[in-house]
Fold these 2 entries.
Entry 1:
Amino acid sequence: MTEWHPTSWQQKPARQQATYPSPEALDATLQQLSLLPPLVTSWEIESLKSQLAAASRGEAFLLQGGDCAEHFADCNSQIVTNKLKILLQMSLLLIHGLNKPVIRVGRIAGQYAKPRSADTETVEGVTLPSYRGDLINGPEFTAEARTPDPVRLLRGYGRAAMTLNFIRALSDCGFADLHHPENWDLDFMHHSPLGEEYQKVVSDLAHSLKFMETLGSARNQELNRIQFFTSHEGLHLHYEQSLTRQVPNRSGYYNLTTHLPWIGFRTATTTDAHVEYFSGIENPVGVKVGPGMSQQWIQELVERLNPRNEAGKLLFIHRFGAQRIGEELPGLIEAVQRTGQQVLWVSDPMHGNTESTRNGYKTRRFDNILGELEQAIAIHRDCGSVLGGVHFELTGDDVTECIGGARGLDEEGLKRAYKTQVDPRLNYEQALEMAMAITRRLGGDDR
Ligand code: PEP
Ligand code: CO
């Protein structure tokens, strides 16, 4: 066995990687990336890890969400702010309903690479490489757009840095002040059937804050700012490698592109390159767990990805679909329990519930999403395990991509604002409704 190094994954089979026409051009770009400043710091990563450890014990709750794929063109003020707003609003509902701290993690500032089911796409007899996300190539069906271009890696780094810069500025000023959650209102709140319930929670929280501040004499500075972490699928291993570094006064290597990278379901084979790369970094790491994963496989993942049994280090993000979770999840929970490790279990009720409508839209039904989540809660409870978080594909915008929810969006309605180029996302209203549903099922009396 060779020793781990940021490049040791290159000795293993790597799935879902792009083929660049010029390996020299790729190398030159990676060289440039390796000299640029990190996007996140080891302090932030370690802080997140200890918070995730609390979530694995049921003392905190993880809310992870954002786009299926970010696009370079969406790196603008409104889209970033709206995403932040919906995640902040959901987190308020969860804090209030679950009565515990909520760890906010966006699929943001780097979610630019996508796994695809086929390497190529054929349209009217023309075959081109599949679109793999803006980090790699363009979605337009032309040979030029679809050819992987390493310059996109630099552009992706730049977009991630700009997004993160804006998020950091917003998180540390008046915008994030818990005394003024009206800053997070999205336009729709004023005419939404859910508006009233949300406003009630906000006013409850305002009262609690006032009460706390009356007891303690000073205003708590911590309440004027929020913590917000980033995550993305660590799919493009060359990109991840170029920002994987040692830092002063700590041992080991950190992936400094993001706080929480995860391994997609399609690349979670233990003998392959992704697990090799992820086995050597100090960040907390997620693994998507889906249909067909065996007990032995999940135990090997535990062994490879968290050999020191570090708290908060390993997240299993399960996504079976409402139909299959009941038969698949209990055995895997028991298999992990037999390893003696405490991992953080997270439900992604999106990726196992994708379907196509008769009119050709890729969609997900609100009822199936909620159905999987409800089953996840019940199964963990029955197994004596903790469901410590949720993972959603959502947007702060008014899109029509998932069917159902309070407004009863139907198949016909999908076409009004169907914008995703990859997976369908919950819109702002459906996302908020989902947060309310979670608090009803996980919070308060029914615990
Ligand atoms: C995703 O999270 O967008 C994704 C592709 O998920 P999975 O690896 O679970 O299919
Ligand atoms: Co997706």
Entry 2:
Amino acid sequence: MIIDILTLFPEAFSALDTSIIARAKGSGKVQINLINIRDFSTDKHKKCDDTPFGGGAGMLMTAQPIYDAIMSVKRENSKIIFPSPSGKTFSVSKAKELSTYEHIIVICGHYEGIDQRILDLFQPEEISIGDYVLTGGELPAMVIIDSTLRFVEGVIKKESLDEESFSTGMLEYPQYTRPQNFKGLEVPFVLTNGNHAEIKKWQKQKALEKTIVNRPDLLDKK
Ligand code: ADE
């Protein structure tokens, strides 16, 4: 998979150079290119923002540099996404879907947003990561990319995906590792006695209890 990220702040993406995503990049499972929108500005001061017509607070990103940045990477099969609080809410099923594309272009807005004509011309899929507003699309882009890459073959073990929250329709059960006693708290006995049927039953029960407390809405969906 190739991901082209169009942004005014490429340095914000250093988080993708750590841990599992860095390994996925290193092994060639994904190529992530950072494209600085400012490099495409035809303005003599490389300006990329302006005040909105009709008034309103803040600045908008102008269409020209974004248009030219998109055209520099766009292919016939590109999936274009635009992180935005006005989009449909991101979910594990969207992450799975995105993981099937060969080429994704992510447009990162900043300030008050981008000129509507970019959305009209390219019809990117607008994706929100939740009902709150961030200062730019860079953090949401990283959230969407991280979550999507987990479903790209070979990035993480398939069993990890099957067991985690949302894949089962419930939140994940509590987990423990060594030592068996930490500050007086013991690992539940059932997890240590090797009875796999009992362990599965315990995990299912704990997952259900956690889901009832934290996300009862998930149970209504089943
Ligand atoms: N840009 C700013 N806020 C956002 C959000 N909640 N989701 C996606 N993109 C955003």
